[in-house]
Structures are given as C-alpha cells and as structure tokens.
Amino acid sequence: MDFGSADSWGEAIYFWIIPVVLGDAIFPPIPSEMVVITGGALSADGRANILLVLALAALASWTGDIVVFQLFRRRLSHVLDRWKWGRRVHQGIHVALAKAGRSSTYGGIIGARFIPGGRLATSAAAGIANVSVRGFSLCAGLGAVLWACWLVGLGYFTGSATKLPFWASSLIGVVLGLVVGAVVGIIVTRRRGNRSPVEEPGPLG
C-alpha cells in the first residue's frame, strides 16, 4: 500500500475503520479519530463514499461501546488481568475514569465520547452502575452517530475548504478535533471523578 496515494487509501479506508474504531473502545491511544477524519477527507476528494464511511464508523463505535459496557456489567474485567497488556489496559481504564469522571447518566454516555478517554470511561462506568441495556444501547447508538458525523464532517470540510492533499486535510482536521476535544474536556472535567470504581488490577508483571 502506498501511504501517500489517495487511491490506495480510498480502497483501504473501509477495512481500517472497523478494527481501529473497535480497538479504540478499550485502548484510547489507538488513533480512531484520525482514521475517520481521513475517511471524510477522502470523501471530499471523491475517493470514498461518505455515507459508507459514516455507517462503518458509527457501527464500529457503537459495537465497541457495547463490548466495554457488557465487560464491566458482567464484572469480567478481571479477564484483562490474565495478560500483561491487559493489566496495562486495565490501569489505563482507571486513568480514563479519573479524568472523565464516573458519570453514567445518559447525557454523559452520549457526550463524553467527544473528549479523550471519555468513551471508555463512560461505557465502563455505565456497566458498573448497571445502567439498563436498552437505555445504554440507545444512547451509545445516538452518540456513535453524532461522533461519526462530527469527525467525518470535519474531514470532509477541511478537504473541501483547503483543497490540499488528503493527508494534509486529515492532519488539519485532527488538530481542529483535538482543540475542540480539549476545550470540551476542560469544561466537563472541572469536577474530576473520585477514585475509580473499577477493582484495582494487580501489579504489572
């Protein structure tokens, strides 16, 4: 794959979206935002179908949220502790919960995904708090659609407005998204969460 070729990315973007966005549900450092924004930039360049990019991003986001929610609702988080990488992820969940707070309200489920680590934190907290499956599913679905529209729209807008190569438009979109996410994060996390409600994982081995 030629990473500088718009044609190569246009052919592959659909296959990247689902695993990357799903992985981001448990491990936030995975750059799902960049992949989805790139999909929007490619759509502006006529290299990808914007509706398909939107649908795949929203579906993957919703599925990832459901997986995390069920994992913590069924108290299966100890499964992560069987492996070194899982314990690192588990500790990362504590960090995300501490930063994003422990809100399991429906508004938090929808909106917190727009701040770094917020998607993981709210899904885990909702599972721990035994939020209804139907309520969480509906809110996570709505949040996933809004999140996908925001990121794909950001990539499409920067691609259409700048007329730069898709990779440059993607980088501009990522920077804008990070700035907006940081502002939202500062507003939302002024009242930081208390100690994480997740059982502490054992020491890393």
Automatic annotation (TrEMBL):
The keyword Membrane applies. Residues 30-156 form the VTT domain. Keywords: Cell membrane, Membrane, Transmembrane, Transmembrane helix. It is found in: Cell membrane. InterPro entries: DedA_domain, VTT_dom. Signal peptide: none annotated. Its main location: membrane. The chain crosses the membrane at residues 12-30, 50-72, 136-158, 164-188. It is a multi-pass membrane protein. GO terms for cellular component: plasma membrane. Belongs to the DedA family. This is Membrane protein DedA, SNARE-associated domain. It comes from Pseudarthrobacter equi.
